[in-house]
Amino acid sequence: MWDMRILVAKILIAAFCVALINPDVIAGNDTLNIKSFGAKGDGKTNDYEAFIKAIDVINNRGGNCTLIVPAGNYLIDAITTVNNKYRDFEFDSCSDLSIIGSAAVINLKGGYNRAADRVAGVKKSFIRSDTYSIIAFSFINCKNIFLSGFEVNGNSDKITRDQRVVEAPSHLLRIWESENVTVTNMYLHHGISDGICIGGKKKFSTNIKVTNVIAESNGRQGMTIVDARDAIFENCAFINTGINNGQYGKHNPGAGVDIEPIRHSINGIKTGNIKFIACRFENNSGGQIRNGNAVSVDSVYFIRDTILTGSSRSRYQLVLGCGYSELNECYIKIANGTFYSSSMRSVQPQHSLIQNSTIYLNNSQIISTKAPSPVAVIQFINNKIYCTAHSTNNWFDFKYGNVKFIKNRVYFPEDYLPAAKNLLIKNEKLNVANQLLKLP
Has residue 67 been placed in a domain? Predict the structure, then answer.
């Protein structure tokens, strides 16, 4: 059984010495220490003003420095409203900036209620609150950024909200219209919105590398990718979204990762070339992965990832919806809900390749696409698929799309093997050099 606590411990231990050994730390520029700006890190003193002072100095010089945050518990006893002076920890138009924590904890304010202040939307259907958490790390129009060695606790388990109040721009980490950003050794948890939000409006965020990061028990998503290209996420975990052991609850969709561009393209280029390597998606209440659509996302890759639904009851556990999606050497266990191997309604050309993976289906099924789609190509090649439910309705629905089901080993309960063989023999899409075997 994977133990998140062990991984957190490894991340925090590694953070102590990252400044000494990591070549990405920018050399030759000034080094600042948050303690010089008055921060105490004792878990009692409000360190909000110290961080604001440091950020203002860094922004005024355009970055070109390293900010050191020693080990400690930095209490940020402040929240944002439309009327107060408080603001996010925002680095704007900085370059060549390293922010290094030695197992430092940023402890955002809890213990307040998000009151329903106003309604918004065309039909006045969104109930909003003008009270929300400060963003702990926000990078806007920045480049050559290195961030490492922090725990950020959003304390959503200690926050309440009025009925139906929707999310706010209160992510724990935001990367916006920025390039060449490296994030490593971070634990981001209990945010009221996203653990991580990456994107842009006028331009993409590009060349993003995120390693050894855990996003756990955040309110809206473990991570949202809005508009981004050339991003790698390695050895990360996106877990327990919407589950915080408090009264706050979740905001929809509540997924582990959601790739949801704002616009179809920027200057003719789509969001894409996004890779998840050896990552874990588990027990996210609104599904594990929602992978965009072919209109706005051109390519996403999942390599040696683990995808487990846990106790999630979402209908949409795994959705591969972009122009090209690839799962290779992944371990997938779907206890409830559905694995959509293409978008739910494909109207744009798209290609999904699922190969060399192990897939368990319980009260769940794999669906090609929900509507007739001559432009969806779905390939299942050389996988091991374990169908444990005693119902032929819970296996495969490959009615639509151009499905290639080749050289897979498919395991069924012994008493359902005859029905399974009949299903594959009748369905040419499923009958290409596959093996049907009894469940071990």
Answer: yes
263 shares a domain with 378: no
Per the prediction, the chain carries an average pLDDT of 88
Residues 6+ apart with CB under 8 A from 409: 383, 384, 385, 434, 435, 437
Query: Is the domain of 270 the same as that of 378?
Result: no
Query: pLDDT at position 255, please?
Result: 97
Q: Please report the pLDDT score of residue 374 as a whole number.
A: 63
pTM: 0.93
158-199: pLDDT as tens digits: 999 998 999 988 999 999 999 999 999 999 999 999 999 999
User: What is the domain range of residue 437?
Assistant: 287-440
* Same domain assignment for residues 80 and 151: yes
pLDDT tens digits for range 384-418: 999 887 665 557 777 777 888 999 999 988 888 88
From CA 224, how far away is CA 215, in angstroms rounded?
11
**Residue 190 CB coordination number (10 Å):** 26
Q: Is the pLDDT of residue 264 over 80?
A: no
217 within domain boundaries: no
Q: What is the Cα–Cα distance from 155 to 175, expressed in whole angstroms? A: 21
Number of domains in the chain: 2
Residues 299 and 188 both lie in one domain: no
Q: Are residues 273 and 298 in the same domain?
A: no
